[in-house]
Amino acid sequence: MGISLQNINKSFKNFDALKNINFSIKQGELVALLGPSGCGKTTLLRIIAGLETASSGKIYFADTDVTQLSAKQRDIGFVFQNYALFRHMNVAENVAFGLKMKPRAIRLSKTEINERVNQLLGLVQLENFAKRYPDQLSGGQRQRVALARALASKPNVLLLDEPFSALDAKVRKDLRRWLRDFHHELNVTSIFVTHDQEEALEVADKIILMNQGQIEQIGTPAEVYKQPKTAFVAHFLGDVNLLHGYIENNTLIIGDFRKDMKEQGNWADQSAIAYVRPHEISIAKTARKNDIQGQVVRIHTAGPTVFLEIAVEGQPKHIDVSVSYRQYEQQQVELGDNIYWQPILVNIFVQDELFEFMI
Ligand SMILES: Nc1ncnc2c1ncn2[C@@H]1O[C@H](COP(=O)(O)OP(=O)(O)OP(=O)(O)O)[C@@H](O)[C@H]1O
């Protein structure tokens, strides 16, 4: 079932927690609500769930206006960060709970409930854990039970609030992959809240990036990462170098680097800051056309990736560059070396407008 939000606002007394939120989600999409602490993600999720009312605006599930409907009437599966399983019930009983609580007229028979529970435990790969109690499970297993329980009544929409944040890094990573595969098998429209950009980039079909109660950008992980619309998005989605340069006669100039920008329109002569990710920089030991010279002042190896810091005249901060270990070995880069480098993908933000180009 698709979801559409129209002009949603939410105020707590004098504080505007959400400002004019608009977006649509397609049936079966897995969407991340991403943003820093306090930006309004949870409030928005709760409004979609019907656990909180918006100050104004409308919410549609498919073509139905659900704005005035309660959480129960909206038919939603909810997963919170802290499992919230019943400790005195075993796994099967936890999953069956919602089904058993339904009014008699619409309740499934005992046999049907057992079948559904078995099917769900198969889906979350916990068939052999039906009789265990929550405190006999790992964090990741508990969260999978919570997911099975949320899905028991075949909800229209699945909402997850920081579902993995209480788990350790390795389990988190496994569960992310698992959620992605599992979701595609299931095809239920799902929204999950996270403040972890890596998680959103890896798991989601679409990311809604929020800041201070507003949407900054909506797009696929590749779009928001490679084509950030604002400086905030560029910063939030990972490490980025701010290269100080200027524009003159429609040419971007950073040290010896020149880039003709006529194709991107007519530019006023002005100083400019170019945003470049560490892996979007090409390095060489001997100068090529358009290269900027620098000196390697730090080398840090992290598994398959090597991080270099390059000191560059005219740049207030060292430039961070990441290369594969293989490339690092081939180039034989050493501390103190002169190095030549140039950006491969640059984003420039001038008065909140974005100009992006490949070089
Ligand atoms: N009941 C409330 N009364 C007053 N202010 C509230 C209430 N609930 C949330 N807020 C405020 O609204 C803003 C958004 O809160 P929200 O919990 O939605 O943020 P968030 O993005 O989910 O943050 P986090 O990642 O830290 O959970 C915050 O500034 C918060 O203090």
UniProtKB/TrEMBL annotation:
Keyword hit for Transmembrane: no
PROSITE patterns per the UniProt record, alphabetical: ABC_TRANSPORTER_1, ABC_TRANSPORTER_2
Gene Ontology molecular-function annotations: ABC-type sulfate transporter activity; ATP binding; ATP hydrolysis activity
UniProt keyword list: ATP-binding, Cell membrane, Membrane, Nucleotide-binding, Sulfate transport, Translocase, Transport
Protein's name in the database: Sulfate ABC transporter ATP-binding protein
Alphabetized InterPro entries for the sequence: AAA+_ATPase, ABC_SmlMolc_Importer, ABC_transporter-like_ATP-bd, ABC_transporter-like_CS, CysA_C, Mo/tungstate-bd_C_term_dom, P-loop_NTPase, Sulph_transpt1
Origin: domain of life: Bacteria
SMART domains (alphabetical): AAA
Domain ABC transporter, chain residue ranges per copy: 3-237
Keyword Transport belongs to the record: yes
UniProt source species: Gilliamella apicola
Alphabetized SUPFAM superfamilies for the sequence: MOP-like, P-loop containing nucleoside triphosphate hydrolases
Organism ancestry: Bacteria, Pseudomonadati, Pseudomonadota, Gammaproteobacteria, Orbales
One cellular component (GO) term of this entry: ATP-binding cassette (ABC) transporter complex
